[in-house]
Amino acid sequence: MSTVLALETSCDESAAAIVSGRRVLAGAVATQMEEHARWGGVVPEIASRRHVEALPALIARVLAESGLAMADLDAIAATVAPGLAGALLVGSVTGRTLARLHAKPFLGVHHLEGHLCSVHLGEPLPAGPYLVLLVSGGHTELIRVDGPGVYARLGRSRDDAAGECFDKVARLLGLGYPGGPAIEAIAVGGDPRRFQFPKGRVSLPQGGFHPYDFSFSGLKTAVLRQVRTLSDQGGELPVADLAASFEQVVAEVLVERSCRCAVEAGLGTLVLVGGVAANARLRRLMEVAAGARGLEWRLAPLAYCTDNAAMVGLAAIERFEAGNRSRIALGVAARLPLDQAGGLYAPQPPF
Ligand code: KG4
Ligand code: ZN
């Protein structure tokens, strides 16, 4: 059983974890959200600086909590793509420096492979080939997983990611950043049927609609239009009802298209991961809809939905135990399709 120290710095969470086998021995996350909230979104330059400040204490803390020393580790891992390049570089340089100092192998990890592995931190494990709905601030994708590292994308958002849509709608409702938790909190007291928002669809050139792709930019505009109409009428804005109706339509469209995709692709299990997977309404709808269609479902443990280093550690362990190592010269990339994650372990680094 292998033990790794993993670092995650792709966006606005600095995180470190020590994972052994499928057990998280210690994990720590330092969020920068409050700082970015002042600007209404993540400021890359600030994110990089805060990662530099946060990582040393996080690493010291997970080592102390796990009771391990650097000598006990089998490898060191860091997220290297995709994400904010400057932010990724902080985790990657820190990880590679530690690896060189302590003569340990280094593994660069694809952030989305980390999210996919977050479900392996729960029980029971999904049994092979299965469909993953990955919903985060940067991605909304339906990914067929045929085995470790073998992925095929069957659907995606053509514009905003679901989490990005939560963030934008929260901003126009005056709820602050990050939008997902803020909308979820206020939507609890709202009526999810009061407003009918559209389930954005993606037209095909030959006519009809793409069965599994998503579009969220029209939904954001529809909420904006509704807010303007209500504001023109005067009176207090029914923020809870607007938030609940928005959350409901996002959850419905995600669940409907994922279930359809799983059934039509002949996949018996549906898996939900990513920051938006923390949403209780989405989790509930997914269970009900998957159950009604005879699908098995697995939800990433709540603690590992939003960005964390434990999921990165688990992805690294799966790669490490399959014999993969990264070259110490491996850099970072703002973009990298998930099906190219294997390239991070190639003899010639892709970047
Ligand atoms: O996976 P994640 O932490 O970072 C990325 O890789 O993007 O996802 C962050 C996104 C944000 O857009 C945030 O608003 C959303 O996940 N989010 C939620 C919830 N918690 C976080 N969206 C809906 N409901 C939540 N409870
Ligand atoms: Zn993420």
Describe the structure.
- This protein has 351 residues and is α/β, with parallel strands linked by helices.
- 40% of the residues lie in helices and 19% in strands.
- The mean pLDDT is 97.
- Helix 4 (111-117) packs across helix 10 (310-321), helix 5 packs across helix 6 (179-187) and helix 5 runs parallel beside helix 7 (217-233).
- The strands form two sheets. It has a five-stranded mixed sheet with strand order 3-2-1-4-5, sandwiched between helices.
- It is globular.
- The longest helix has 26 residues, at 239-264.
- It has two domains: 3-116 and 305-345, 2-Layer Sandwich (Nucleotidyltransferase, domain 5), CATH 3.30.420.40; 125-299, Nucleotidyltransferase, domain 5 (2-Layer Sandwich).
- The chain has ten helices and ten strands.
- It binds 5'-O-[(R)-(carboxyoxy)(hydroxy)phosphoryl]adenosine (KG4) and zinc ion (ZN).
Keywords:
binds zinc ion, binds 5'-O-[(R)-(carboxyoxy)(hydroxy)phosphoryl]adenosine, Nucleotidyltransferase, domain 5, 10 strands, five-stranded mixed β-sheet, alpha/beta, globular, 2 domains, 351 residues
Number of helices: 10
Q: Classify the secondary structure makeup into a structural class.
A: alpha/beta
Please report the total strand number as a whole number.
Answer: 10
Order of helices and strands: EEEHHEHEHEEEHHHHEHEH
Strand content: 15-25%
Portion in helices: 25-40%
Task: State the CATH architecture of the largest domain.
Answer: 2-Layer Sandwich
Spell out which ligands are present: 5'-O-[(R)-(carboxyoxy)(hydroxy)phosphoryl]adenosine, zinc ion
Please mark out the parts with pLDDT under 50 across 5 or more consecutive residues, or reply none: none
The global form is: globular
CATH topology of the largest domain: Nucleotidyltransferase, domain 5
CATH class (first level) name of the largest domain:
Alpha Beta
What separation lies between the terminal Cα atoms?
A: 30 Å
Radius of gyration: 20 Å
**Overall average residue pLDDT:** 97
Q: What is the chains' assembly state?
A: single chain
Reported for the largest beta sheet, the result is: 5 strands, mixed
